[in-house]
Backbone:
C-alpha cells in the first residue's frame, strides 16, 4: 500500500515508531514533542493552531520556523540533482518528481546528509516496499515507473541519523507530480496538387507541461511517415488518387520524448492536372561573348496560373533584355519572373548585350573648314583616309541643319555605301540644335565593326547656296 500524508499515516507512524504525540492543545505555549522508546525527544517551537482538512490531513501551524539544525545530529536531504532531471531534492526535507510514462522504469534518487561528522543513517519507514536506502552511500532509490507507474500524490520517508549517543529523525515529503504531457498539434497545408511535386505542410500549437522543446512527425497518408524534426516538412505523392491523402502529425518533447496524440487530418487531393514548363533560351550579343547566366534553365510542374522564377546574373559590361516575363533589373544579379503561366513556354529568350565602352586614348581627327556651297545641291566629295582600324567613328557637321542639308552618303573602302544619298538615312543623329550641329556615330551602330583602315568617301550637299559649314570626323 502506498503511504500518503493523512491522519491515518500520522497515527501509524506514531504507533510504529513509538513516537507519541504528547500535546495538541490550541494554546500559544503548547509544543509538539516526539519521543522514541529510548527517551530521545524532538521538540518544535510553540503550536499556534492545528486543523484537520477535508482530505483528513492533520495540519499543525507553528508560531516560529522549525529549525532543523537544532536536531542532534542535524539531518537534511542533499539538494544535488540525481540522474533523473525531473526529480528535484530541496533542503531540508522535500523532493519533487514527475511521474514517468506507463511502462517506463525510472528510479528517482537523492541522498541524506548531515553536517555532524560520523553520522550514520537508516530509513525506518519508506514510501513503499520497493523503495530502498543504501546505508553505505546514504542514497535513497525508488523506481516510480512501471505498469502502472506510482500514482500521483505525496509520500513520506523517515530517516534516522545516529551520532554517538545522539539520534534524530527526518521526515521527507516526496511529491509525485503528474507525468509530462504534450498537446496534439494542428496541421495545415495545400488541399490539391499534382503527382511528383513536393508540397509543404505545417504542424504547430503543441506544448509540453514541462515547457520542453517540441518536434514533429508527419504521417503522409500513403504509408510513409517522416522522421522527427522541426516543422514545416515537405512530401510528394507519386500517383494520383480519386480519394484524398489524409495528412496528420504528432508532437513529442525533447529530451524526454513524451509523445502527443495524433492531430486531426489535413486532406490533399493529388490529381493529374495539367502542368507547364518554361524553358530558357540564352542569346549573347556579340555571340562570342558570355553576357550572363540563368539558373535553372527550365521550370516544370507549374500548375495553371502559377509562376516561374529564374535567377539571372548579368556579366559586368552587359545588359539583359527578355521577350516575356519581367526582369527586376537589367544589370547585376536579378530575378526573371513569369506570372499566371497557362501554357508551355518553350523559348523564353533572354538576351545579354555588350555595352559600348567609353573611348580611351588619342583620337584620329579629320577636319575640313570653312566650306561653301555656291549652288543648291552642289555635292562636295571628300576622300577620308583612316590610318588604322577603329571601333568608333563620330562625325560632326556645323553650319547645316536638317532643312539645309541636301544629300549625304558614306562609302566604305570595300564599296559599301551607308546610307545612300539620303539625309533621312543617317544612323544616329545625336544632336541638331539651333546652332545647326549634326553628329553621326558609327561603330556598333554601323554594321561594320571595327571601322576599317583605308580610304572612305564622304559625299554631302546643301539645299541652299552660300552655305558655310565645318565638318570634323574623329575615329577612336
Residues:
Amino acid at each position: 500500500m502506498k503511504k500518503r500524508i493523512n491522519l491515518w499515516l500520522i497515527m501509524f507512524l506514531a504507533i510504529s515508531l513509538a513516537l507519541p504525540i504528547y500535546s495538541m492543545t490550541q494554546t500559544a505555549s503548547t509544543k509538539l514533542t516526539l519521543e522514541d522508546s529510548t527517551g530521545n525527544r524532538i521538540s518544535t517551537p510553540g503550536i499556534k493552531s492545528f486543523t484537520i482538512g477535508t482530505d483528513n490531513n492533520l495540519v499543525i501551524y507553528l508560531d516560529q520556523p522549525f529549525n532543523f539544525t537544532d536536531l542532534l545530529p542535524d539531518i537534511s536531504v542533499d539538494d544535488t540533482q540525481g540522474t533523473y532531471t525531473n526529480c528535484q531534492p530541496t533542503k531540508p526535507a522535500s523532493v519533487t518528481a514527475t511521474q514517468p510514462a506507463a511502462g517506463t522504469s525510472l528510479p528517482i534518487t537523492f541522498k541524506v546528509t548531515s553536517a555532524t561528522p560520523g553520522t550514520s543513517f537508516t530509513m525506518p519507514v519508506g514510501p513503499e516496499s520497493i523503495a530502498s536506502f543504501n546505508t553505505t552511500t546514504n542514497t535513497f532509490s525508488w523506481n516510480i515507473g512501471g505498469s502502472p507507474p506510482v500514482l500521483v500524490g505525496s509520500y513520506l520517508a523517515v530517516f534516522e541519523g545516529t551520532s554517538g549517543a545522539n539520534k534524530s529523525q527526518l521526515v521527507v515529503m516526496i511529491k509525485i507530480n503528474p507525468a509530462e504531457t504534450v498537446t496534439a498539434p494542428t496541421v495545415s497545408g495545400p488541399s490539391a496538387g499534382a503527382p511528383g511535386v513536393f508540397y509543404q505542410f505545417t504542424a504547430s500549437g503543441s506544448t509540453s507541461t514541462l515547457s520542453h522543446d517540441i518536434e514533429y512527425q508527419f504521417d503522409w497518408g500513403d504509408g510513409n511517415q517522416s522522421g522527427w524534426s522541426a516543422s514545416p516538412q515537405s512530401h510528394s505523392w507519386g500517383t494520383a488518387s480519386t480519394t484524398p491523402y489524409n495528412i496528420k502529425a504528432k508532437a513529442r518533447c525533447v529530451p524526454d520524448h513524451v509523445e502527443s496524440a495524433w492531430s486531426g487530418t489535413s486532406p490533399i487531393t493529388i490529381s493529374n492536372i495539367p502542368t507547364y514548363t518554361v524553358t530558357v533560351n540564352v542569346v549573347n550579343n556579340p555571340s562570342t561573348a558570355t553576357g550572363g547566366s540563368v539558373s535553372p534553365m527550365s521550370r516544370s510542374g507549374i500548375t495553371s496560373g502559377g509562376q516561374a522564377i529564374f535567377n539571372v546574373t548579368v556579366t559586368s559590361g552587359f545588359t539583359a533584355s527578355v521577350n516575356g516575363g519581367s526582369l527586376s533589373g537589367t544589370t547585376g544579379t536579378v530575378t526573371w519572373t513569369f506570372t499566371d503561366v497557362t501554357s508551355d513556354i518553350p523559348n523564353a529568350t533572354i538576351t545579354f548585350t555588350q555595352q559600348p565602352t567609353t573611348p580611351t586614348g588619342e583620337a584620329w581627327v579629320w577636319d575640313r573648314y570653312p566650306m561653301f556651297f555656291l549652288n543648291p545641291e552642289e555635292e562636295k566629295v571628300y576622300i577620308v583616309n583612316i590610318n588604322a582600324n577603329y571601333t568608333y567613328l563620330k562625325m560632326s557637321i556645323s553650319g547645316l541643319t536638317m532643312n539645309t542639308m541636301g544629300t549625304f552618303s558614306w562609302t566604305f573602302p570595300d564599296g559599301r555605301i551607308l546610307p545612300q544619298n539620303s539625309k533621312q538615312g543617317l544612323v544616329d543623329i545625336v544632336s541638331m540644335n539651333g546652332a545647326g550641329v549634326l553628329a553621326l556615330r558609327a561603330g556598333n551602330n554601323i554594321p561594320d565593326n571595327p571601322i576599317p583602315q583605308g580610304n572612305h568617301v564622304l559625299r554631302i550637299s546643301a539645299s541652299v547656296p552660300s552655305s558655310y559649314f565645318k565638318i570634323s570626323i574623329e575615329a577612336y
Summary: Helices lie at 7-16.
